[in-house]
Specification:
The structure holds 2 protein chains of 2 kinds. By secondary structure, chain A is α/β, with parallel strands linked by helices. Chain A has 13 helices and 9 strands. Chain B has a single domain, classed as Rossmann fold (3-Layer(aba) Sandwich). In chain B, strand 11 and strand 12 form a beta hairpin. Chain B is globular and about 40 Å long. Classes of the chains: A alpha/beta, B alpha/beta.
Chain lengths: 296, 200
Amino acid sequence: MESTGTVTVKRGLAQMLKGGVIMDVVTPEHAAIAQEAGAVAVMALERIPADIRAVGGVARMSAIDLIRGIMDAVTIPVMAKVRIGHFAEAQVLQQLGVDYIDESEVLTPADDKYHVDKHAFTTPFVCGARDLGEALRRIAEGAAMIRSKGEAGSGNIVEAVRHMRAIGDAIRELSVAPGEELVSRARDLGAPLELVAELAKNGSLPVVLFCAGGVATPADAALMMQLGAEGVFVGSGIFKSKDPKRFARAIVDATTHFNEASVVLEACRSLGISEAMSGLDIRALDEAQLLAPRGN
Amino acid sequence: MTRIGVLALQGDVEEHIAALRRAGGDPFEVRNCADLAQADALVIPGGESTTVMKLLTRSALDRPIVERVHAGMPLWGTCMGMIVAARDVAGLEQSTLDLIDITVRRNAFGRQNESVEVELPIPALGEPPFRAIFIRAPWIERYGPKVERLAERNGRGVMVREGSVLATSFHPELSDDLRVHRYFLQMIVDSQAGKAPTAA
């Protein structure tokens, strides 16, 4: 009679987050700042991606007391990350009662071949993707929300743009593909035919698509929204900036009114001379330092 | 033709627009005061209430919406929209638009793991029960004297009406069933019929 954890209910929470900003936070105080600025959800973690890069070593699911403290500090949904393929970490987070689980390339992968079977969980999952095939594979595994991967902790928007364009271009191409091409296209995408056929018919993903990985300014957020993102994850961009409160609010305003340059202008101006986080040149990174290629 | 605005600051706007269109309405997005002026009725969708209250204030849409509703504009809030429309929120210092005399409790049915699909009897819609989708849903803890109770789940109010303001703590825009959208369209027709004599 009462059904929890249905596809509708899991995808539904992501639908409620559309048009919003989800912020990485590492303390209850950060979470309160994020909520006050207008975040629709927070991602609770021990270190923001830029610091995970700096510290090195193996990055794992965050300490439970830290996540619990953040859940108690805010009324908005709380997400938390597990390592790719680490279904036992996911079982722990489901038991804890977080609202969304991010199976994330930002943490060190636990399984270099397989992702978590996300259908097996009541708690919904969000997963990263660099292209449409990757997005559809994650949805086939049960992901209820997709985010473009970008390059987390880089402060550089170029990878997020590349991934969002790749996904958008592939969707547009499929939506006009003749029926006889779908089997071969599904093979080339490495995705199940039924999802490919459904997407070709509807012209959109069956789940909400956010962007992530590199958003550092209000204009970055407006750019990603105009490229087709339905919302924005901001990791290091807020709490690595010189003035997190102002950056948080400005990025929310620019995301809400991404199509109105006057509002985005005001959001940029509101930062005064505060500096955004310093960024990394992706081309200067070693392959081992890149996060996006983890999981495929 | 009656134009129904859907508040488009944040949340599941598209889903409401699609459902209103299928139910025979003429919906459009409301992002600012100029949009609001074009609307004969307003839907506040699902989303995050803390976020949307801040965005309403920052875009100076809060007062105009209150004035329009006081002047008779029909309004329907779903989940977040119900919280925004309520008089107050139990246990929290959260501002609202105070458009319907109820006190709501946020996330009262639980966090996401307790989000459910339920067969909900709604007498005003007749049989069969409505497949209601609750997502981190609020419930109603206090009702003003003029508030009509339209549905309860486990003894808790989840659908109410006061005059031309409707509130549901679930998401009819995520169901295939259009009966709640049609019910709201009828409320708009009735409110316009009621107003006609004074206008003439």
